[in-house]
Amino acid sequence: MIERENIIYVEDKEKIREYEERLQREKQDALEKAEWEKQQALQMANMAEEERQQYLDAIEKKAKAEQKTREKQAKMIQKLKKMEEQLVAGNLVKQEAEAQKAELKKVREEKKKIRE
């Protein structure tokens, strides 16, 4: 039994680059938003300390979840790039095998002519 890994080919490297840039912008925006929210929480002088801490904890939890999502997306981009490289390498191997097959066929035909 031959097992074969399914490979997805991403034809548009520009889309991957755009996705990476968008991911960077989202990361920066999320960091800035989290910092702004922290500052807002610290400025609420009339808020009880316990409520303030709960609010800060919720903000940090949300920021960590967003970071985890961005990391997953970055891993997916890397996986797509690796799969594309594998596809390119696989195509080169296939072309080489086809060339060898053609060469073998040519040699066999020449042997057949010599025998005749």
Task: Give a concise summary.
The protein has helices spanning 13-43, 49-115. With 116 residues, the protein is mainly alpha-helical.
Characterization of the model:
It is a single chain. This protein is mostly helical and 116 residues long. The chain has one domain. Helix content is 84%, strand content 0%. The protein is built from 2 helices and no strands. Helix 1 packs antiparallel against helix 2. The longest helix has 67 residues. The protein is rod-shaped, with a radius of gyration of 28 Å. The model has no long low-confidence stretch (mean pLDDT 82).
**Main β-sheet description:** none
- Counting DSSP H or I runs of 4 or more residues, the number of helices is 2
Order of helices and strands: HH
Overall strand count: 0
| Structural class computed from helices and strand pairing | mainly alpha
Overall 3D shape: rod-shaped
Task: Assess the beta-strand content as a share of residues.
Answer: under 5%
The N- to C-terminal Cα distance equals: 40 Å
Whole-angstrom Rg: 28 Å
Helical content (DSSP H or I, runs of 4+): over 70%
Mean pLDDT across all residues, rounded?
82
Low-confidence stretches: none
